[in-house]
Amino acid sequence: MNQPSSPAASISLESSLQLEFDQLQRKLVNLWKQIGRSDPGGPVGIENTTVLVSSISIDVDVPVAEIQAFEQRFLFLLFLLQQPYKRIIYVTSQPVQQSISDYYLETLPGVITSSARRRLSMICVEDSSAAPVTQKLLDRAHVINHIRSLIPDLAHIVPFNTTDLERRLAVQMGIPMYAADPTIYPSAPRAAAGASLPRRASRILWAGRISFPSRPWSRRLSVCAPKSRPRRS
């Protein structure tokens, strides 16, 4: 892909990307109406696919074993396969042992393990580097095309965190993302300080106080739960 030749071209490319992303995100409303409840065991009357991308963007070196552990934290979402019309595509950097995924599938109540396994696709990009899984996908168009070939119906992406990388992935795959728009994150420090926000950002409900480090190049966030109020007698 050719790089933009000027700042104006970069702005135009960014605007085009955001427009495509916004159009995809609008599909979530209708998608939710069609697939029904998303909790395990809820009534779902139409086939749908969830693409799990347990990616994380960090600025420090992390051992390969820890990266694998981070990428497997979404395995609990395999319980969604309790829904008979649900398919899951799980993307990781390194292979997940079948005994681990089978552990989850075998504990699904009222579901035949072989049926759940047929509706689960484990996709591995075979890359043990510290780069985010999303970046590894964007660097491998053939893997993205393979994932798209596994989606015959309604689908959405569930990422662990949302950055420009996840936004690009959603646009390249052509499916919406069940996550916040990464462009609203610059408003978070103002929200934590109690400042007024644009109408679009003010619709977000912050469940706690988010503190940001003073160094702008660090992406780490610390989330502090609000103190509980004493109960009235």
Descriptive notes:
The chain is an alpha/beta fold. The protein has two domains: 152 residues, no CATH class; 39 residues, no CATH class. The chain has ten helices and six strands; from the N terminus they run ααβαβααβααβαααββ. It has a four-stranded parallel beta sheet. A two-stranded antiparallel sheet has the order 5-6. Helix 1 crosses helix 8. The C terminus is likely disordered.
What keyword list fits this structure?
233 residues; alpha/beta; two-stranded antiparallel sheet; 10 helices; 6 strands; disordered C terminus
Structure in a nutshell:
With 233 residues, the protein is an alpha/beta fold. It has ten helices and six strands; from the N terminus they run H-H-E-H-E-H-H-E-H-H-E-H-H-H-E-E. It has helices spanning 7-25, 27-35, 64-71, 98-105, 113-118, 133-138, 141-149, 164-173, 188-192, 199-202; strands at 48-53, 86-92, 120-124, 154-159, 209-211, 222-224.
Which residue ranges are poorly predicted, with pLDDT under 50 across at least 5 consecutive positions?
A: 188-193, 199-233
Which structural class matches the secondary elements?
A: alpha/beta
Query: How many β-strands, per DSSP?
Result: 6
Helix content: 25-40%
Overall 3D form: globular
- Reading the helices and strands in chain order gives HHEHEHHEHHEHHHEE
Query: Hey, roughly how much beta strand do the residues contain?
Result: 5-15%
Average pLDDT, rounded to a whole number, is 77
Largest sheet: 4 strands, parallel
Measure the end-to-end span.
65 Å
Q: How many separate helices?
A: 10
User: Rg, please?
Assistant: 20 Å
Strand numbers in spatial order across the main sheet? 3-2-1-4
